[in-house]
Write a structure and sequence with these properties.
two-stranded antiparallel sheet; alpha+beta
């Protein structure tokens, strides 16, 4: 666990954008919850893990290339 925080701090210091941090989470914490979507501001309607976020981002990238 200590190594995980050390790695995260190192990436944070060297990262100028959030993309690197998201990539780190996708690689090291893929099953951790990234987002919770609220239907009316209170009722949970969906969840997205870092792994699912990564897949969605890859799909979006493919769509831009086509």
């Amino acid at each position: 666990m200590a190594q995980l925080f050390k790695d995260f701090r190192e990436i944070s210091r060297n990262s100028s954008i959030g993309v690197d941090l998201l990539r780190y989470r996708c690689l090291h914490q893929p099953d951790q919850l990234a987002f919770t979507f609220l239907k009316d501001g209170e009722t949970e309607s969906d969840r997205l893990t870092y792994s699912e976020l990564d897949v969605a981002a890859e799909r979006s990238q493919l769509n831009f290339r086509l």
